[in-house]
Amino acid sequence: MDLEQRRQVFVARTREFLGHGHDRFAAARLVAEAAGDLVGPALDIGTGKGLLAMALARRGLEVVSVDVSREDLELASLLASEAGLEERIRFLLHDARSLPFADGSFGCALMMDVLHHVEEGRPVLAEMSRLVGPSGRIVIADFTEEGFSLVSRVHQAEGREHPRSAVTVEAATALLAELGWPIAGETQGHLQHVVWLRRK
After folding, report:
1. Number of domains in the chain
2. Helices 24-33 & 51-58, crossing angle to 10 degrees?
C-alpha cells in the first residue's frame, strides 16, 4: 500500500475502535499526562502511528520517536504534519535495544503498547534507563486485559492474529526496579495500564 492508502486504513481503524468505545487519541493523552509534568526532550520508544509522540508534542515537549518500521515512521510523520506538530518531533529509524544517544540525553522516556511486541524486555528497558537523566521519569503503558480482548477481536474480524509476548507491564516494572527505577505511580484508563517510575 502507498502512504495515502495506509493513512486511510489508519483512519478507518481509528473509527472502528471509536465504534467499540475506544478513543486511541485519548489513550495517548492519558499516557502522556499520567506522570504529571515531564521534562524534555522526550524519547518515545516504538512510534507506531505516532499517537504518543503527538500527545507529548502537544504538551510542548521536543520528542525523538524511534521505531524499526519505516512504513510506520512515514505514516506517523504524515499524521504529525497534518496536526501541525512536525517541528517538535524527530522520527528516526532505530532499534530501541541500541540507540545512538549519550547517557542521560533525555528528560523522560515513554513506551505505549510496545511491550507485547517485544520478546525480550531487558535490552530495551536498559536503554531507557541509560538514556534518561537522574531526575527524569520513565513511563510504561500497555493494554489492559479488556484492551487486549478488543484488539484481538478487531484483528480476528480481519482474519489476522494480534501478537502478544510474555513481556507485561508488571514484568517491565520489575526489571526497571532492578535497574534502580522504583514505581512512582500507576493508573488505568482508556484500556491502558500506565506505570511511571523515578530513579532512586
Report:
1. 1
2. 50
Cell numbers at 161, concatenated: 492474529
What does residue 148 show for φ and ψ, rounded to 5 degrees? -60, -40
HSE toward the beta carbon, residue 162, CA cutoff 13 A: 16
Spatial separation of the C-alpha atoms in residues 73 and 66, rounded to whole Å: 8
The tens-digit pLDDT sequence of the chain (200 residues) is: 799 999 999 999 999 999 999 999 999 999 999 999 999 999 999 999 999 999 999 999 999 999 999 999 999 999 999 999 999 999 999 999 999 999 999 999 999 999 999 989 999 999 999 999 999 999 999 999 999 999 999 888 888 888 888 899 999 999 999 999 999 999 999 999 999 999 98
Q: Which of 116, 113, 112, 111 is nearest to 131 (CA)?
A: 111
Give the long-range contacts of residues 5-13, CB within 8 A, separation 24 or more: 6/71, 6/74, 6/75, 7/75, 7/78, 7/79, 10/49, 10/75, 10/79, 13/154
How far is the C-alpha of 111 from the C-alpha of 125, rounded, in Å?
10
Query: Do residues 123 and 173 touch, judged by C-beta distance below 8 A?
Result: no
Cβ atoms of residues 88 and 119 within 8 Å: no
| CATH number, position 175 | 3.40.50.150
Domain of residue 91 covers 3-198
